[in-house]
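Methods: example folding runs. The two proteins below were folded one after another, and each record is reproduced exactly as written to the output file, sequence line first and structure-token line second.
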Amino acid sequence: MESNIDISIVVPLYNEVESLPELHAWIQRVMKENSFSYEVLFVDDGSKDGSWKVVEALRNADANVKGIKFQRNYGKSAALQVGFEAVKGNVVITMDADLQDSPDEIPGLYKMIVEEDFDVVSGWKKKRYDPITKTIPTKLYNWAARRLTGIYLHDFNCGLKAYKYEVVKSIELYGDMHRYIPPLAKYAGFTKIGEKVVQHQSRKYGTTKFGMSRFLNGPLDLLSVVFMGKFGKKPMHLFGALGILMFIIGFGFAFYLGIDKLFIDKGARLLAERTEFFIALTAMIVGVQFFLAGFVAELIGRNSSSRNVYLIEKRLTDEQVGN
């Protein structure tokens, strides 16, 4: 889709009242210096500190500003998903609201999408100003993500990213999937994924909004992304194959025990008294369960078209909905 808007900037936020005016002024300056047509979409993820009043004030002062406010806190993935559904720019930039992402990087990201024809460009905070309790797990997750997805990025979780319009309209985020948008894009067919070293700034206001739960959610979400990307449309290919393999192993073992008892060692213990028989029986039962799980997953996948619903309390766009 060709739009008269060069860049859409999506900024998810949660209790960032101090940083919003400075971030907006910074974005505005960069856009004017580069003569970009643009929109800035602030997605308030249920803030309680007056952030929405700042967004309303920015909207009144700048027609390029738009806003969406959730009724409650849903998380960053939900904020990005709703933002992606609303944007109109040819290139979509995402960045955090805490001033740790520099708007000065936007022209470089835009150039890589438009001139070098990347589908996705992910920022790489090569020099970070985060505590070691955050940097070490991040390095581990990035290593695991590279190995499992085949996408060789240094910083999957960097909030500063650029996308073609078609990419953000082709993916769906939920849970904490915002960490793994590049793999989601790859599995949607957008394979030209690049990386750009970006400046990382220390937090100027407030505190981080991410708790210890991310250390557990991150690996689980990565496994979900990889599974859904490779087998989401064909779960039978995984569960069916595992089921058949387990059943063949169990049946083969049980068949061998039967032959051994009937023709080789007739004086051996009864099959029901041998541990090996129960192992074989268990393998066959597990195999059947795997196969049935794949069959049920196929049925659900072919008949499910539901999407997540997020309750939006207020919206500031060109087509005003709510106040």
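Second run, written to the same file directly after the first:
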Amino acid sequence: MKKQRKNNMDLSIVVPLYNEEESLGELIKWIRQVIDPLEYVYEVIFVDDGSSDASWKVIQDLKVENPEVKGLRFRRNYGKSAGLHCGFQVAHGDVVITMDADLQDSPEEIPELMRMIREDGFDLVSGWKRKRYDPIGKTLPSKLFNRTVRMVSGIKLHDFNCGLKAYRNQVIKNVEVYGEMHRYIPLIAKQAGFGRIGEKVVQHQERKYGVSKFGIERTIKGFLDLMSVTFISKFGKRPMHLFGSLGTLMFTVGFFSALYLGMKKLWYVYHSVSAQLVTDSPYFYIALTSMIIGTQLFLAGFLAELVSRNSTERNSYQIAEKLD
């Protein structure tokens, strides 16, 4: 039996799960069949996201016969991002691999993922399920979602939401996963300064037990989260750049539109030409509304800037190395 040493561990496998009692026993056997012959010092961290079935009891039983098994259990269901965040906090491996517990991610991919991190120098390697065994109701929205994220983020990955990913330990200790942001870990990692992001085609298995825990609402939430993470990354510490710019633009357009209407009215009066009142023109109210909205946006940016300047993390930066 290999002795696990926290400060000299090769691999941590983080497995978030929710109501997957049928698959856990098969999963740990599959992992051991792949990893044990490689003689890695490793740990398997199951994160039970408040399961209502016997998943936690199964994890406890697996721990008895498999010393590399570790477990965390939430009091209620918080979501996959919370599971990954807590799993990352306790992971000690030089390489950290995440995978789903439903047997759709193959542990056979682990050795190559580790090689890509250790030898090829990637900070993060994301799996790509090129051939998927999911209904078109999941695959079609997924393709649209991934294409949108590629355009917005500039990261050339085909499958951002693949649960099978490998990380350098330094990456997972320097990124924060919250809400539903697990889909955007490559983007969050890139923003934290970890730009060597690779991709590997992985085998996708058909679901053997249970049903998927995600529905169509995942796609809607995904796009909203994309807007959120993009905004925070670009303007989180400088909100005035966004709100101030938009506010100034709208106020300027409204002001010059109103000025044009006023100058036009004066020209008509000077030349004794009959003309309607400025206030009778719908364009006057459009211009006035534009100036009001522009002022509000500018004030919103100013207030957001005050909040940002008083944040305790306003000067929090990622330092890769230091020489004294």
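Comment on the second run: The chain has ten helices and seven strands.
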